[in-house]
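Human: Cast an eye over this sequence-structure pair and say how the chain folds.
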Amino acid sequence: MAYMIRGLDPASFEHLFGLSDAALAEHNAVRRRADTKPGFPCRVTLEDAEPGEDLILLNHQHLPVDSPYRGSYAIYVREGATEAAEYRDAVPLQLARRLLALRAFDDEGMLLKADVIDGSELDAVIEPWLADPAVAYLHAYNAKPGCFAARIDRG
């Protein structure tokens, strides 16, 4: 089954790019400089930032649903990211190299299934999960810190 993993729309974050640290703080965001790789996963480009790159750390509502599963958490976005990544029937290295919590949701934002998997197994798990007609989409989370990593849709 075809699937698509997309980065977040950079337009949602452009208003933060280039702001001073004080101005970022007014948005409950902070600037961080990557000092290791992997370690600073950009949710727009779906790549780990290179050491020395600046990112914005902010709270993002990744599951804006009217259900008990509505969710937001901290994410990194590369400062100046301009284009959302698209991976068709392929898993970005950023996901493949991490321990992931995978969750399946229905059209009403209700959790149907969840598991913890090695990111290298993600491709093999996506097809059978999306084959279930009750599943509307999947979310991948970085299992250790618990942050949203990417949404996976039928492609």
